[in-house]
Specification:
By secondary structure, the protein is an alpha+beta fold. It is 54% helix and 9% strand. The chain folds into two domains: 151 residues, no CATH class; 96 residues, no CATH class. The protein contains nine helices and seven strands, in the order H-H-H-H-H-H-H-H-E-E-E-E-E-E-E-H. The strands form two sheets. The protein has a five-stranded antiparallel β-sheet with strand order 4-3-2-1-7. A two-stranded antiparallel ribbon has the order 5-6.
Length: 320
């Protein structure tokens, strides 16, 4: 019987966790699905469906933090497809004015989806900058809108071919292949530079399912619920303090960063630890309330009104 060495197992394990490998598989199967989609019989259609499913699975694995944001690219592509139909086919049955209005409305909707995507990633960039790491995104932003232009080009070539105005699909194939590499770049740059700091897109009913099967190893950082005690600004250890509620006299845990010299409280929207000194959450921009709610009596008080417990006072004396 053939045995497998520990080194071989380590290699296989590294392949499993190598996101770049999955990303390359994503682009390869995307192009394969494009080729099979051009076939004219049932075998090619089935092959295209299989390749499309595998492409999605590779995208889940290769871009676990950007996959939900990629929904905006899909929506933009679909709106461009609708605009192409409006520009090329609607005039045959409706007035040209109606077709133009509908087409430009859909084009505008596609641009709006991409602006939302850019805004989400820029917000992540700004939060990283607050922690001392600035990532330039100028070229990446340009490439997002290059995706929009390439989608328009490919679908217009396809529309002209489908309506009999072109004899071949060469323009469509070239534009789609170019767009595939643009998608790869647009997804890969934030994935590699921001990773788990990217705020996931929350879709009721859908997000829990996708998180369970495809992003189960994603950790929600800096949450009280996970007992994390790491500063989101300097990555240093947070000091815990037990303070007494002015109303019910029950103790509650507070977090203090000696390096940042600031308290960190749980954001009411995303549940992560954010600076008490900031006006809004450094992760999701939710306004930070200056009064902290007691988990026992539900009353709100400023941190200065919460008195240190005797045990915490003793800890402070020991640290000093």
């Amino acid at each position: 019987m053939r045995t497998v060495s520990i080194n071989q197992l380590g290699f296989l394990r590294s392949l499993k966790d190598d996101r770049f490998l999955w990303q390359v598989c994503f682009i390869a199967f995307f192009l394969l699905s494009l080729g099979l989609g051009l076939g004219g019989n049932i075998v090619f259609t089935i092959g295209w469906g299989i390749m499309a499913i595998l492409t999605l699975l590779f995208a889940f694995r290769g871009f676990p933090n950007m996959f939900s944001s990629a929904l905006y690219l899909v929506l933009a592509y679909l709106t461009v497809f609708g605009a192409v139909i409006a520009f090329l086919w609607v005039p045959e049955h409706r007035s040209i004015n109606l077709a133009v209005i509908l087409g430009f409305f859909l084009e505008g909707a596609g641009v709006a989806f991409l602006i939302v995507l850019v805004g989400r990633i820029w917000k992540t960039r700004d939060h990283m900058a607050e922690r001392g790491k600035y990532v330039p995104l100028g070229f990446w932003t340009i490439m997002v809108f290059v995706f929009f232009l390439s989608a328009n080009a490919s679908l217009f070539f396809w529309g002209l071919w489908a309506s009999g105005q072109l004899n071949n699909l060469a323009g469509y194939i070239i534009a789609e292949a170019f767009m595939a590499f643009v998608i790869f770049y647009v997804l890969r740059v934030p994935e590699m530079r921001f990773g788990k700091d990217i705020e996931p897109l929350k879709i009721p009913g859908v997000t829990p399912m996708t998180d369970r099967f495809f992003t189960k190893d994603r950790k929600e950082p800096l949450s009280f619920k996970e007992g994390t005690k790491t500063c989101p600004v300097c990555n240093g250890s947070l000091r815990t303090e037990e303070r007494i509620c002015p109303s019910c006299k029950q103790e509650q845990t507070f977090y203090w960063c000696p390096r940042s010299e600031a308290f960190f409280v749980e954001c009411t929207r995303c549940g992560r630890l954010t600076s008490y000194e900031k006006k809004e959450c450094i992760f999701c921009s939710q306004p930070v309330k200056k009064k902290v709610k007691c988990k026992v009596c539900d009353n709100d008080f400023l941190i200065s009104e919460w008195k240190l417990s005797k045990q915490s006072v003793k800890k402070l004396d020991d640290w000093d």
